[in-house]
Amino acid sequence: MKNLYFTICLVALTQLMHAQQKATPVTTLGGVMTVRLIMDNTTSLLTMTLTGPTDRWFSVGFNTTATPIKMNTTTDCVTMSSGTVLTDCKPLGGHNDIVADPIQNWTITSNTVVGTTRTVVAARALSTGDANDYAFNYTTLTTLNMIWAYAPSASYSFALEHSGTTKGVKTVTFSPLLGTEDFATLEKLKIYPNPSNGQFSISKDNSIDISDIRVYDTNAKLLKEIHTDYTSQDISIDISDLSSGLYFVEISNAEDKVVKKIIKN
């Protein structure tokens, strides 16, 4: 019995040691919004899945419990400010518009609508180096206070401030992702050399299929898109025609999707 207990503990400890992602559960906000955050220690990326109404603005803010009626003007927020634009911003509060950050660090990787619900998947660096952005510390962060709000009626105008029932505060908890979710096949992909002069290679196992590769800039603009089935072990990505800087590569197949960051010197 002692040996069995020791084995179970050893397996659990091994899983925790190898876990490279922490995630919150899908958390409901006010009945019409949800949010889930995933921190990836390997890629140093934060991925957010945010849902809300299709016909109005909705927003979340990080690391604050400030009165959501006005929302603290120093809070790092992200707002679906139109049907296609996710804005990295600060709120002014009251019946005022948001103020977009000078640098937009979020990149939308998916924006889908089913019925009256919009689902947006977006990514940014855990720590962007931008003073306007909250820095997500993978090692120490376990709980996070968030504020949320959405327009009380169908509008993207912030003159229609959130009402008493369309705003609130929520605390989310991060836990290590274990099992198959933590070891999704596309997560095993490696992009090298990184940084590079624009010539990158994707290294993968022959058993992993890739159907789509998309390259985005830091403003979520799609720059390159390739639809094909890759079966070779190494795949080349050429962005030598693009300016130096940070880019995001979305790699997907029918079952999985992953976002990697690359830097062109």
Describe the structure.
This protein is mainly beta. A hairpin with an 8-residue loop joins strand 7 and strand 8 (99-100). Strands 1, 2, 3, 4, 9, 10 and 13 form a 7-stranded antiparallel β-sheet that branches. The protein has helices spanning 2-18, 179-182, and strands at residues 21-23, 27-29, 33-40, 45-53, 58-62, 76-80, 86-90, 99-100, 107-114, 117-125, 143-150, 167-173, 175-176, 190-192, 199-203, 210-216, 222-230, 234-238, 245-252, 257-264.
Helix-strand pattern: HEEEEEEEEEEEEEHEEEEEEE
* Fraction of residues in β-strands: 35-45%
Helix content: under 10%
Dominant shape: globular
Identify low-pLDDT runs: 1-18, 179-184
Short description:
The chain is mainly beta and 265 residues long. It has helices at residues 2-18, 179-182; strands spanning 21-23, 27-29, 33-40, 45-53, 58-62, 76-80, 86-90, 99-100, 107-114, 117-125, 143-150, 167-173, 175-176, 190-192, 199-203, 210-216, 222-230, 234-238, 245-252, 257-264.
SSE arrangement:
Blueprint: H1 2-18, E1 21-23, E2 27-29, E3 33-40, E4 45-53, E5 58-62, E6 76-80, E7 86-90, E8 99-100, E9 107-114, E10 117-125, E11 143-150, E12 167-173, E13 175-176, H2 179-182, E14 190-192, E15 199-203, E16 210-216, E17 222-230, E18 234-238, E19 245-252, E20 257-264
